[in-house]
Amino acid sequence: MLTTHNIGQLDAIILCGGLGTRLREETEFKPKPMVEIGGRPVVWHIMKHYHSFGIKNFILCLGYKGDAIRDYFLNYHFRNSDFAIDFASGDVETLTNTYREDWRVVMVDTGRDTLTGSRIKRALKYVRNDIFMTTYGDGVSNIDLKALLDTHLRADKLGTVSAVRPSSRFGELGIQEGMVNTFAEKPQVAEGWINGGFMVLNQKAFDHVDEDSVDVSLENGVLEKLAKDDSLAVYQHAGFWQCMDTYREMEMLNNMWNKGQAPWRLW
Is the pTM of the predicted complex or chain greater than 0.70? Predict the structure, then answer.
């Protein structure tokens, strides 16, 4: 029986195929999950977060510029090691290995223009259990994944989404008698929860999605249906969450990392 104690049995599907048009400064040359925070792709940060809770098996749904993600992980060992090449024999000797991950990473070409729900459907053939975790490849958080899984198991529904309260994109002014008495730069929105990714889903939630489809979105084609069928639970996360949609948000996350003030770094 699956419990939070054996969360490591679950696979994590990460959606890595979007165009990232609002971050065109970076995504013109690389897919959005490869945009870096502190010299590491944002997808690496997401995977390290999952791994800190014991999850080691990842399934990456590739699309736009997916070869960049393939190349990164195919060469991950050598990117993070000192090594020597014997050109006479062709042998490669590893001298150091800074990052020795025990991950297993499945990379699935889910199509350049395929929508998110159809991407996951195409990746399900590699999922080992009825229940799996999934998220988008562009957002970091300090969400408690065991608490999320516990919510899903207790609710006994086909899906559980994480609700977050994002930061406002603008500074918030407190005004009294014609004067500004408080100013908060990008405060957390007090009301209005949004889907922050970091979901737990049952494979059955995708039974109505054809594996050859390309036009089913996770949000409208799967989650909305689950909500209408009273099959979608929610885990409310009041802690840190931030997506990386714009150049300014990328700079903000990099500044947090460089200052040693990255709340999502749980490892």
Answer: yes
